[in-house]
Write a structure and sequence with these properties.
With about 400 residues, the chain is an alpha/beta fold. It contains 14 helices and 14 strands. Keywords: Amino-acid biosynthesis, Arginine biosynthesis, ATP-binding, Cytoplasm, Ligase, Nucleotide-binding.
Length: about 400
């Protein structure tokens, strides 16, 4: 049976050269699959044609922008998805969607193999391959960069050997991944942790020091879902895109972090995610108003665990599904408006309103009209601290 490899195709140098290389190594055909996830830049028709020009027998382009926003970004908002309390899972949430469409293409076009361009050092190999095995374990997996020790130098040399035209510059030292949820940059001089990122690193955001006038924005949510900006109805995709523009103009959403990769090493990453960071900040602020204290405390634990599951490539796993069910159950009353000010790289919440709020003005106020019975507090405080009081007494007497 002739091999038919379904390749996750980005249109860049590595995956372009991978098309003839995979054909040579397997003796089969290559089907290229590209997803529009709102990454911007090159026209997707050009990407599709480049794959065909490079030897693909089929080149499939999927407009997955709304699907990505509704089914992957929205759950991340509801779960306040932030790995290590910082990273809004820019790349991690895109991989299961790419996996889904690669499996679909393989089933529709007689695929025998699926392939990706990830190295053996990163997290993405795990996200792709665990996803492939979860959805269709009968497909064989090829990872040229890892399985054949495929390097950029080798890719360029192979392209020259077969006269494959490659327009992409090989001079950039950085590895970049981007979609509508954000942009990730690594490698090059960033691998020295003491080196500060230079201005040319950034694309989604302006310099926070530019001094643009503050931008006040009101985001409205219904059951945890952003539905309007400044009173104007929007889809989730439109909300992300608008906040990317407005937040990016204020230098909001930049992140320079050292993260713990799944394979056990630490890696320095630069991220830009203005829309993601604004939406998560607003969503957290609304949960502060609408979630009961014990539920809110426990949800913060679940949010962290959800983020770890997604980061670790277990989007299709049973724990992730169960955590999704919990998160969804908490969102019934997360409805209302959050007002924020975007300025000089910062996001500041300065207004909250909700018809499902648990904030009771009459209980909270210190002025006339206070309905909180302070006489109950004395006994409460004594009982609350009783166990630690007894323990400290024992410790003093023992010493």
């Amino acid at each position: 049976m002739t091999a038919r490899v379904v390749l996750a195709y980005s249109g860049g140098l590595d995956t372009t050269v991978a098309i003839p290389y995979l054909s040579k190594m397997t003796g089969g055909e290559v089907v290229a699959v590209s997803l529009d996830l709102g990454q911007g830049g090159e026209d997707m028709e050009s990407v599709r044609q480049r794959a065909l020009d490079s030897g693909a027998v089929e080149s499939i382009v999927v407009d997955a922008r709304d699907e990505f926003a509704e089914e992957y970004c929205l759950p991340t908002i509801k779960a306040n998805g932030m790995y290590m309390k910082q990273y809004p899972l820019v790349s991690a949430i895109s991989r299961p969607l790419i996996v889904k469409h690669l499996i679909k293409a393989a089933e529709e076009h007689g695929g025998t193999h699926v392939s990706h361009g990830c190295t053996g050092k990163g997290n993405d190999q795990v996200r792709f391959e665990v996803g492939f095995r979860n959805l269709n374990p009968n497909l064989e997996i090829i990872a040229p960069a890892r399985d054949y020790a495929w390097t950029r130098d080798k890719a360029i040399a192979f392209a020259e050997e077969i006269d494959l035209p490659i327009e992409q510059s090989a001079s950039s030292p950085f590895s970049v991944d981007q979609n509508v949820w954000g942009r990730a940059v690594e490698a090059g001089y960033l691998e020295d942790l003491w080196n500060a990122p230079t201005k040319d690193i950034y694309s989604y955001t302006e310099d926070p020091a530019m001094g643009n006038a503050p931008d006040e924005v009101i985001i409205s949510f219904e059951a945890g879902k952003p539905v309007a900006i400044d009173g104007r109805k929007v889809t989730v995709l439109e909300a992300i895109e608008e906040l990317n523009r407005r937040g990016g103009a204020q230098g909001v959403g930049r992140l320079d972090m050292v993260e713990d990769r799944l394979v056990g090493i630490k890696s320095r990453e630069i991220y830009e995610a203005p829309g993601a960071m604004i939406l998560i900040k607003a969503h957290e602020a609304l949960e502060d108003v609408t979630l009961e204290r014990e539920l809110a405390r426990y949800k913060r634990l679940v949010d962290a665990r959800w983020s770890e599951e997604v980061y670790d490539g277990l989007w299709f796993g049973p724990l992730k599904r169960s955590l999704d069910a919990f998160v969804d159950s908490t969102q019934e009353y997360v409805t209302g408006d959050i007002r924020l000010v975007l300025n000089a790289g910062s996001i500041t919440v300065n207004g909250r309103r909700s018809n499902t709020s648990l904030y009771d003005f009459n209980l909270a106020t210190y002025d006339t009209g206070d309905t909180f019975d302070q006489t109950m507090a004395k006994g409460f405080v004594q009982l609350h601290g009783l166990s630690s009081e007894i323990a400290n007494k024992r410790d003093r007497e023992a010493n």
